[in-house]
Design brief:
Blueprint: H1 29-43, H2 47-57, H3 67-76, H4 104-120, H5 124-137, H6 144-159, H7 174-178, H8 181-196, H9 199-208, H10 226-235, H11 239-267, H12 271-285, H13 289-301, H14 310-329, H15 335-351, H16 359-368, H17 374-384, H18 390-417, H19 425-436, H20 438-441
Helix pairs in contact: 1-2, 2-4, 3-5, 4-6, 6-8, 10-11, 11-12, 11-13, 13-14, 13-15, 14-16, 15-17, 17-18
């Protein structure tokens, strides 16, 4: 038996040294901060010189790694601790946003510094957005003056495209909203933003990030109403923003109205119930009748699957619209509503090519069903129509319009002369329609059941 211990195998070979470039550099934001603050102190408050210094320093200092520290210094004068406070034992500089004058012109000048820096070093874009989001969450840790300066600067940077409107999500922080910090900050921000652009540009930016319907969330839940928002921002001098939010709420209410209307129609709810619901919504959301008739028309036309054959779709449309005439008539009590409906019909017939030949038949139907009256039809024919299918539809309507004009003249003439047998309004309508002749007979349901009652099949 071999009592000798067997020697364990060992690994041997050349030991390589780690290359200097592969060694991980220690994260040292304090040293980076000292370099930046020293340079800013030398440049002084000349922001042109500051921009040049930052441009040159990017070649020597690691902006990519210390982006947060860099932006902390430029905004607050030094590295920020959690909550937004400056550490007492750290170096500071007065060449920063918070130490500058509290006016829009100064903030515009600082915005140019950030603009030039980020254009020169594109990789800083993401870091800057993250920095602003953080600063907004720290608002309670800043003084009122510091918040005002940051708000003005943010508004300018949003206007020139340096920042994306998604950074405003930080303002919906529950604590900021509850204490009124978010709303007060938003006032200064939107004033500077709208000053640089206009409300339409602001609205477009908000819409891109789906924030156009969230502005009321700047207030606590018990104050999230159009009335409160309008009062607060109008008194702060932002009437255009108040009107924009009111319009957005109206648009939202219109969409909800159309959705509910379509559901009620698909269920076959009685017209009287539908009319009552729509009128309540009109009153509650301050929706004018001309807008409502457009919603009702769209809803009516979306409840059926239309035939693809042009020769059949007109008959189908007349049958369908005859059924819904009482509903449409309830919301054409104003001349402007009737004109709106005529334009909606024109646009629909143009956009849906199978309806091109049905336009005149639909208008005649609505005239007989008292959805439309003479004056708006004549007004539409004369100068209120739109360009879509204009020549086709005017030609279709030519005979009917001539008949309307002649019938109106005859009625006036008979009233002045007092000749001929007297007729009640129903009989007079029958008489006029019979004179229209061919156009009347073209739609077989149009003939009266009795001349006495003026009822229609």
């Amino acid at each position: 038996m071999n009592n000798q211990k067997q020697q364990k195998p060992t690994l041997s070979g050349q030991r390589f040294k780690t290359r200097k470039r592969d060694e991980k550099e220690r994260f040292d934001p304090t040293q980076f901060q000292d370099c930046i603050i020293q340079g800013l102190t030398e440049t002084g408050t000349d922001l042109e010189a500051v921009a040049k210094f930052l441009d040159a320093s990017g070649a020597k200092l690691d902006y990519r790694r210390y982006a947060e520290t860099l932006f902390d210094i430029l905004v607050a004068g030094g590295m920020l601790a959690p909550g937004g406070t400056l550490a007492d034992d750290m170096m500071r500089t007065d060449v920063c946003v918070f130490a500058a004058q509290e006016d829009l012109e100064t903030m515009q000048a600082f915005a140019q510094v950030f603009n030039k820096l980020i254009r020169r070093y594109k990789y800083l874009e993401k870091g800057f957005e993250d920095e602003v989001k953080k600063l907004l969450l720290f608002l309670k840790g800043f003084s009122e003056s510091e918040r005002n300066k940051l708000a003005m600067l943010t508004g300018v940077l949003l206007a020139n495209g340096t920042l994306n409107a998604s950074i405003l999500n930080s303002l919906y922080n529950e604590n900021l909203v509850k204490e009124g910090v978010s709303a007060a900050f938003a006032v200064k921000l939107f004033k500077s933003w709208i000053n640089e652009k206009d409300i339409n540009a602001v609205a477009a930016s908000l819409r891109k990030v789906s924030m156009d319907n969230r502005l009321m969330e700047l207030f606590p839940a018990n104050k999230q109403s159009v009335e409160h928002f309008t009062k607060y921002f109008t008194e702060a001098g932002l009437k255009e923003l108040s009107e924009y939010v009111r319009n957005q709420q109206t648009i939202g209410a219109r969409k909800e109205l159309q959705k509910e209307l379509q559901e009620q129609m698909s269920r076959g709810d009685p017209f009287k119930d539908i009319i009552l619901y729509v009128k309540e919504e009109m009153k509650k959301n301050n929706i004018p009748e001309p807008v409502v008739i457009g919603i009702v028309w769209s809803s009516v036309m979306s409840t059926v699957e239309w035939n693809k054959k042009e020769e059949l779709v007109a008959e189908q449309a007349i049958k369908h619209l005859k059924q819904y005439s009482p509903l449409l008539a309830a919301f054409t009590t104003q001349g402007q509503s009737e004109l709106t409906l005529l334009l909606k019909i024109q646009e629909y017939c143009y956009d849906n090519i199978h309806f091109m030949k049905a336009f005149q038949k639909i208008v005649v139907l609505f005239y007989k069903a008292e959805v439309l009256s003479e004056e708006p039809i004549l007004k539409w024919y004369k100068d209120a129509h739109v360009a879509k299918g204009k020549s086709v539809f005017l030609e279709q309507m030519k005979k009917f319009v001539e008949w309307l004009k002649n019938a109106e003249e005859e009625s006036e003439s008979e009233a002045e002369e007092g000749d001929g047998p007297s007729r009640n309004s129903a009989e007079n309508e029958v008489y006029r329609l019979e004179k229209f002749g061919e156009n009347v007979r073209a739609i077989d349901w149009w003939r009266p059941d009795t001349a006495e009652t003026g009822k229609w099949a």
